[in-house]
Design brief:
Distance between the termini: 61 Å
CATH architecture of the largest domain: 3-Layer(aba) Sandwich
Helix content: 25-40%
CATH topology of the largest domain: Aldehyde Dehydrogenase, Chain A, domain 1
Shape: globular
Strand order of the largest sheet: 14-15-16-13-12-17-18
Number of strands: 20
Number of domains: 2
Strand content: 15-25%
Bound molecules: NADP nicotinamide-adenine-dinucleotide phosphate, magnesium ion
């Protein structure tokens, strides 16, 4: 019997939540053309009112970034690097505050925002700070030049981390930015704006425009930007690709995924089960590279399923601010509807649904960890991105069949291979059409490692030396 845990809530007192927030343009907080609210998805409590940027506000932000570009790109590179180091250190100093705010606005467990999101965000700034004065040695020519003003649009699943993936390489290479966070998770980006002021970053180098899809559209279609960096859905990515056709804007797109997590019968089973759980239930499955399709070798199927179900019975779902929580809230009512719709399609198409016994809170947006077995490649839950805590289990007999099934998707962002035999894992990895392949681990990130997709998962790479190229005229 699992023992009872005492509640271990992280204090909200470290966060100074203001009733309303403005746009961050040219180093100042200003009003927008309207307002919207952001809620805590675990309770539906309104956290704050946030300014909505209309086209005129986006225009002001782009103009500020353009004015700042000349002096910023002319700074000696090591001076630019100092600002990035300073920002990285402030992110570390204020990490508890950022983690609590992220969990409040997004619904993710504090354990994850505290141990993954915020430390990694700081790590990306440290990493690109180091590159700032070494661009001539990046293999991109002796003197690569910045592009100008970058328009950046990010999703709600890793708000501050996605911001750092965008802003750190852009600034290190001498560009200035206008960034739009997602409508449901604007608060850590606005705290980051404050951090830019604390670091004395020159006004206009970073601008944050909050709003919904229309604000993002106004930004990416603005004629004054030189580069678009977008992370989000494949559908919106396609719209953006169409809208920039014929312009000189450079574009990188980080889109959806439907990763295969392949478990061979010689896999280290304890680690594999942890990896399956981490692959799909980390961040409630709101992960573009989530291991949402489990491919198990038939000879190991019974063992894997039995261990997996036992492990899922120990996951704790509930208050994201409780340090014991493993599974937090679904980010929005809209996302919950989508998860329910696709799961219902799984039932209707004949797959078998299983969830551990798990009480859901009365208020807020919640979905239990869910496993579908008897899934075929034709089922919607095997083809479409659920972006929630829903695992589809398929089986295979031979390595060749595993590869064929793994690659049978329009996406190609990530994959996992579990096997004790190095040659088998390497053979499999070399056949997988995916930007990242993890062996005997999953969902591991490092600023030095490039990340990005094949096929409909997008193009361009973020992270590592490769991530510099997206912001340089080479
Ligand atoms: P989304 O609807 O595409 O939204 C992403 C961002 O784009 C949000 O800031 C959104 O604003 C904005 N946006 C919406 N319509 C726009 C338009 N027409 N023009 C410009 N911007 C627009 O995606 P989502 O559903 O929020 O995010 C989940 C998706 O992101 C999943 O498919 C996931 O796989 C993908 N993702 C990919 C990666 C990666 O690195 N490859 C990482 C994380 C997530 P609002 O939110 O305010 O509507
Ligand atoms: Mg929110």
């Amino acid at each position: 019997m699992p023992f009872e845990y005492a509640p271990a809530p992280e204090s909200r007192a470290v966060v100074d939540l203001r009733p309303s927030y403005g746009l961050f343009v040219d180093g100042e907080f200003t009003a927008g053309s309207g307002t919207f609210t952001t809620v805590n998805p675990a309770t539906e409590e309104v956290l704050a009112e946030v300014a909505e940027a209309g086209p005129a506000d986006v225009d002001r932000a782009v103009a500020a970034a353009r004015r700042a570009f000349g002096p910023w790109s002319a700074l000696p590179a090591r001076e630019r690097g100092k600002y990035l180091f300073r920002i990285a250190r402030i992110l570390q100093e204020r990490s508890r505050e950022l983690a609590v705010l992220e969990s409040l606005d997004n619904g993710k467990p504090i354990r994850e925002s505290r141990d993954v999101d915020i430390p990694l965000a700081a790590a990306y700034f440290f990493y690109y700070a180091g590159w700032a004065d070494k661009l001539g040695y990046a293999g991109l020519g002796p003197d690569p030049r910045p592009l100008g003003v970058a328009g950046q649009v990010i999703p709600w699943n890793f708000p501050l981390l996605m911001l750092s993936w965008k802003i750190a390489p852009a600034l290190a290479t001498g560009n200035t930015v206008v960034l739009k966070p997602a409508e449901t998770t604007p608060l850590t980006a606005l705290l980051f704006a404050e951090i830019c002021r604390q670091a004395d970053l020159p006004p206009g180098v970073v601008n944050i425009v909050t709003g919904a899809g229309a604000t993002g559209q106004a930004l990416v279609s603005h004629p004054g930007i030189d580069k678009i960096a977008f992370t989000g859905s494949t559908e919106v990515g396609k719209q953006i690709a169409r809208s920039v056709a014929g312009t000189s804007k450079k574009v990188t797109l980080e889109l959806g995924g439907k990763a295969a997590n392949i478990v061979f019968d010689d896999a280290p089973m304890d680690q594999a089960v942890e990896g399956i759980v981490n692959g799909i239930f980390f961040n409630q499955g709101h992960v573009c590279c989530a291991g949402s399709r489990l491919l198990v070798q038939e000879s190991a199927y019974d063992e894997v399923l039995e261990r997996l179900k036992r492990r899922l019975g120990t996951l704790r779902l509930g208050d994201p601010l409780d340090k014991n929580t493993d599974v937090g809230a679904i980010n929005s009512a809209a996302q919950l509807d989508r998860i329910r719709e696709l799961s219902d399609a799984g039932d209707a198409e004949g797959a078998e649904r299983w969830s551990p016994p798990c009480a859901l809170p009365d208020r807020g947006f919640w979905f239990p960890p869910t496993v579908f077995t008897g899934v075929t490649q034709a089922h919607r839950i095997a083809r479409e991105e659920v972006f929630g805590p829903v695992l589809s289990v398929l089986t295979f007999r031979t390595p060749a069949e595993a590869v064929e099934k793994a690659n049978n998707t329009p996406y190609g962002l990530s994959a996992g291979v579990w096997s004790d035999k190095g040659s088998r894992a390497l053979w499999t990895a070399s056949k997988l059409r995916a930007g990242v392949v993890w062996q005997n681990t999953f969902n591991r990130f490092d600023p030095a490692s490039p990340f990005g997709g094949f096929k409909e998962s997008g193009y361009g790479r973020e992270g590592g030396r490769h991530g510099l190229e997206a912001y340089l005229d080479v």
